[in-house]
Amino acid sequence: MKTAVITEKHKVEIREAPRPQLKAHEVLIQVEYAGICGSDIHLFHNEHPFRKPPMIPGHEVSGVVVEAGASVTKHKSGDRVVVNHAIPCGKCRFCQAGQINICPTKIVAGSGKMMGFFAEYINVPESTLFKIADGISLESAALAEPLSIGFHIMRRLEHAGKGPVAILGTGTIGLLALIAARSLGYREIYCIDPIDYNLEVALKLGAARVFNPLKVNAAEEIMKCTGSSGVNATVVTAAAKGIITDACGMTSLSGTVIMLPMTSKILEGNFYRLVAGEQALIGCRGIVQGDFENAAELINNGFDFSPLITHILPMSQSQYGFDVMVSRPEPVIKVLVQPGR
What is the pLDDT of residues 252-283, one digit of tens each? Predict the structure, then answer.
C-alpha cells in the first residue's frame, strides 16, 4: 500500500509499505480522508516535542471497515467510521481519574508507537471507533478528532461559565472551538486572526465580532465590546510572538487563558496582568471519551463543516498540502488528503 512519509524537515515522500496485519481486537480500515493537523505541521518543521522524521503523519481520519479481527463484535465490513487515535494505558493514576488525555504512556497515531494515518489502510483497536451514519459526508467526518478537541477546550473552561470568550487564532482548531462553543450555548464569542478569509468563515459560523490584529488592537476592541471587563476566557491556538501578552490583555480579572499550541518553541510574554488580575493560565491537550462522543454526535446530526475544508488532494500531492499550509499562497484552513487517489 502507499503511504506519505515526512522523511526530513520540509520533505514528504510517497512510499510503499506492507498492508497492516490484524490482531484479534483490531479492524482494518480503508482510509477515505486524512487531515493535516497543526501538530503534523510541527512535525513537518521538525519542531514537535516527540514526533520526529522520518514518520508517517496524520491522526485525523474517516474511512470504511474492510476487515474485522476474530474478537471484534461491534463493527463489521462496510461500517463507516472515525477513529479516536489516542490509546491510554488505563492503569496509571491519570487514567484512573478519567484524565486519559494526559496518560504519560498513551499511544497516539503518527508517533513512534503507532503508524500515522496517511496510508491507504490502517489497523486500529475496535475500541477506538465511532460509527458515522449513512448519508453523512465522510469529508466532514474526517474533522471528528479536531472537533473533539474543540469540545475538550470548552470542557476545560466549564468553570468560567458561558460568558464572553475570545479565540486567538481561527485555523481549524480555533474554528472548531467556535463551533463547539456555539453548540454548547455560548453566544458572545470574539475571534482574532491576521487572515481575513478565516475571519469571514468565523462570522459565518456564528462569531459575535472578529478582529484582525494587523489592523486594530484586538485587546482594546474586546474591552470596548465587554464594557472594559474583558472576556471570561481566552483560547490561544497559535504559537505567535506576543500572543500570551495579548491573551492576558483581553481577559478579565480572575479570568482564564487556555493554551493549545503543541510546540517546543519558547513563547515569551508580559505576565503582569496575569499576576495582578489573578488570572489562570492553563494547558489543554488531547481529549477524553466524552469529547469524541460530543463530536461524533454533532457530525451525525448533519452539521455542515464544508466552510472549513478548503483543499481535498490526492495523497500523491501531500507535499503540496503541507507546503500550502505553511506558505499560505491561497486561503487554506483544513487540508484533507485521499490515500486512495
Answer: 999 999 999 877 778 888 999 999 999 999 99
Where does the chain hold its CATH 3.90.180.10 domain(s)? 2-143+305-338
Grid coordinates belonging to 62? 474517516
Best CA proximity match to 244, nearest among 283, 189, 200: 283
Distance CA 150, CA 281 (A): 18
Paired sense of beta strands 189-192 and 165-168, if any? parallel
Q: What are phi and psi of 178, to 5 degrees?
A: -60, -45
Average pLDDT value for the chain: 95
CATH H superfamily, domain 150-283: NAD(P)-binding Rossmann-like Domain (3.40.50.720)
- Residue 163 contacts residue 234 (beta carbons within 8 Å): no
230-252 average pLDDT score: 95
Distance CA(255)–CA(234), nearest Å, equals: 8
Handedness of CA 119, 75, 108, 154 (dihedral sign): positive
Residue 173's SS3 state is helix
- Tens digit of each residue's pLDDT (9 = 90 or more) over 63-110: 999 999 999 999 999 999 999 999 999 999 999 999 999 999 999 998
**Residue extent(s) of CATH 3.40.50.720 domains in the chain:** 150-283
Give residue-wise pLDDT tens across range 304-323: 999 999 999 999 999 999 99
Q: Is the pLDDT of residue 52 over 90?
A: no
Which CATH topology does 2-143+305-338 take?
Quinone Oxidoreductase; Chain A, domain 1 (3.90.180)
130-136 average pLDDT score: 97
Amino acid code (one letter) for 58: G
List the grid coordinates of 189: 464569542
What is the bridge-based pairing of β-strands 231-236 and 165-168? parallel
Number of Cα atoms under 13 Å in the Cβ half of residue 5: 15
DSSP secondary-structure letter at 55?
B
